[in-house]
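Researcher: Quick test of sequence recovery. Tokens follow.
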């Protein structure tokens, strides 16, 4: 009986784990709102915003092909998924004074999906 209950609890947690991982296909569609300023992929370059290829694990404000705001250039942290999640939700709360004019994404699912899409470009 005890092992049966444990099995049911494990099965119940599977959809939550899958949701947390995000969907890179849905993330590509959700990234469309970012793509007017940001590029991602092997040939991505900075433009109106910095390129986001390999952003997870990169120091904030560190690409050489974009001129960052003083706030972002001196942020001093590494972009972890948790930091990106918080930034996508409320950019000015994470880096006050940054020059990105974006109010944030309210949907946790869209953020999960965008992060899955960004992960798909990691080496």
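Model:
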């Amino acid at each position: 009986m005890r092992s049966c209950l444990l099995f049911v609890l494990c099965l119940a947690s599977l959809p939550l784990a899958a949701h947390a991982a995000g969907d890179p296909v849905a993330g590509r569609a959700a990234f469309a709102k970012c793509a007017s300023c940001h590029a991602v992929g092997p040939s991505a370059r900075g433009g109106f915003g910095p390129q986001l290829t390999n952003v997870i694990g990169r120091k904030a404000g560190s690409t050489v092909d974009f001129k960052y705001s003083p706030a972002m250039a001196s942020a001093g942290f590494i972009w972890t998924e948790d930091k990106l999640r918080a930034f996508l939700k409320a950019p000015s709360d994470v880096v006050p004074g940054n020059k990105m004019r974006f109010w944030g994404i309210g949907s946790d699912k869209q953020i999960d999906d965008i992060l899955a899409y960004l992960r798909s470009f990691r080496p």
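Residues 3-19 have pLDDT under 50 and may be disordered.
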